[in-house]
Input
Amino acid sequence: MSPTNTNTKVMNRFDVTSRLVAKLKNEEAVIGGIGNTNFDLWAAGHRPQNFYMLGSMGLAFPIALGVALAQPKRRVFALEGDGSLLMQMGCLSTIAALRPANLCMIVMDNGLYQITGAQPTPAAAVSDIVAIAIGCGISNSVWAADEQDFERLVGESLSASGPMLIGVRIDDKAGVGTTRRDPVQIRERFMLGLGVRQAL
Output
């Protein structure tokens, strides 16, 4: 069985990330997964509510789940690559079971473990990330057909009543810029941005 995302447009990760950031008006939290997904979030514009995951594949969705449960009135977005998600797919079942109404997950799927040498992922040939999410119980999971459809889906997620997953087919362009690798600074800025720590 081949993936069902073959009728969707191949988009650019930085462009899609910039479109997402431009729609955020209410201090929504954004968790960026490692590698190019992270680099493009960094380059799309700093916000105190951005968290840049460093060094651990597949943790963007679990971290975002924790934020969504801790702050249910705040909309939370998580950006992850297909390779990273495949390393931590069990999180989809947990998210489906807990059903946070304020969580939207965005999977940037280029069918590659791009940052480690562009080895193909199972999503390149046989694994359909959106179908997997639906099978795990996240019924509001869909492929974005093009940039305009992506923006429409992000808009829908801002008032969704359950978790949502948006799959985006992307090209193999490298990320724009490089995240400053300072874990303590990243953590402190994010905690300030979420209002759980006061500035000294």
About this structure: The chain has eight helices and eight strands.
